[in-house]
């Protein structure tokens, strides 16, 4: 069993006696050397910073960082991404879409959902960003509901049973995977396909990439942890692909030279904390992600 005594947020995917605390500009990351998973804690703000953020919060919320979902450049990216999803997931793995009911969790601006509808699927979208929700509903006529991993229960937000569930670049914001999977089970038909795409694992490059964001990744899981969680909820792995970006991920965010010293300062601090030898690539400066396809069979529940 995981020991979560003293863990302020009661995460179930780390063992506190094996954790290290990594300092970044706006967050602390708690990294478990035993399980390879990590979660973030936002730093306490100074009085001046709190006053500034209180003023900003009159117009924005934590999720307004994703207002760019409806920008022209991201809309074009989403159209390209929809073709990738159709080709690399559904066509490659021979998953039929016609007549299927699909749930796209945290599906962004809805363009992927809209393209799946064109292929004969009935698609329901959830999203946390208000602008993206309005865009998907009004511009694309996609059935869309607001869903926050931390505040909401998925089975209370959407109704009915689904043949396919998409979790694309989403689980990094789910800190209670056991609760989420329990809720998800209530929405799955036997034989349902669940797609986990772009599941980021903790590396130094990723932890530093998000250090200047007010709203950051909340939880990063090793693929083996996800597989274990899912198997205890009747979800069984049928396909997996891992990927590594060829360029250091931090460069994308720290292209502003004014941030170079900040990145290097916290990178040095991180290297001092993270173990030199480990079964996990904690010290890597690149982004590493896993893509997995699982099938729901409630008769094969694992006790692992």
- Average pLDDT, rounded to a whole number, is 87
Could you tell me the radius of gyration in angstroms?
19 Å
CATH arch. level architecture = 3-Layer(aba) Sandwich
Tally of contiguous helical segments: 10
Description:
- With 304 residues, this protein is α/β, with parallel strands linked by helices.
- The chain has a single domain, classed as Rossmann fold.
- It has helices at 47-56, 72-91, 111-118, 130-138, 154-157, 177-185, 204-209, 223-231, 249-253, 260-273; strands at residues 19-23, 27-32, 38-42, 101-105, 122-127, 143-146, 162-168, 188-200, 219-220, 235-244, 288-296.
- A seven-stranded mixed sheet has the order 6-5-4-7-8-11-10, with helices on both faces. A four-stranded antiparallel sheet has the order 1-2-3-9.
- Strand 7 (162-168), helix 6 and strand 8 form a beta-alpha-beta unit.
- Helix 2 (72-91) crosses helix 3 (111-118).
- The longest helix has 20 residues, at 72-91.
């Amino acid at each position: 069993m995981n020991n979560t005594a003293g863990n302020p947020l009661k995460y179930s995917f780390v063992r506190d006696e094996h954790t290290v605390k990594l300092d970044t500009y706006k967050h602390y990351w708690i990294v478990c050397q035993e399980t390879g998973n990590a979660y973030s804690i936002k730093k306490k703000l100074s009085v001046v910073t709190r006053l500034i953020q209180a003023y900003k919060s009159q117009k924005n919320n934590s999720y307004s960082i994703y207002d760019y979902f409806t920008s022209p450049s991201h809309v074009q990216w989403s159209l390209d991404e929809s073709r990738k999803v159709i080709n690399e997931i559904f066509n490659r793995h021979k998953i039929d879409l016609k007549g299927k009911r699909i749930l796209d969790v945290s599906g962004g601006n809805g363009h992927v959902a809209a393209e799946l509808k064109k292929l004969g699927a009935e698609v329901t979208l959830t999203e946390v960003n208000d602008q993206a929700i309005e865009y998907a509903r009004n511009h694309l006529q996609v059935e869309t509901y607001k869903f926050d991993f931390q505040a909401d229960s998925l089975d209370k937000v959407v109704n009915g049973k689904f043949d396919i569930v998409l979790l694309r670049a989403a689980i990094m914001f789910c800190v209670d995977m056991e609760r989420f999977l329990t809720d998800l089970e209530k929405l799955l038909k036997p034989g349902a396909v669940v797609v986990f795409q772009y599941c980021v694992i903790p590396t130094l490059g990723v932890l530093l990439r998000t250090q200047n964001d007010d709203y950051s990744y909340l939880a990063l899981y090793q693929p083996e942890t996800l597989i274990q969680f899912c198997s205890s909820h009747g979800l069984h792995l049928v396909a997996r692909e891992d990927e590594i970006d060829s360029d250091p991920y931090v460069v994308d965010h720290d292209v502003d030279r004014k941030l170079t010293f900040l990145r290097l300062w916290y990178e040095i601090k991180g290297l001092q904390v993270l173990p030199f030898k480990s079964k996990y690539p904690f010290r890597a400066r690149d982004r590493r992600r896993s893509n997995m396809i699982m099938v729901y069979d409630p008769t094969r529940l694992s006790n692992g």
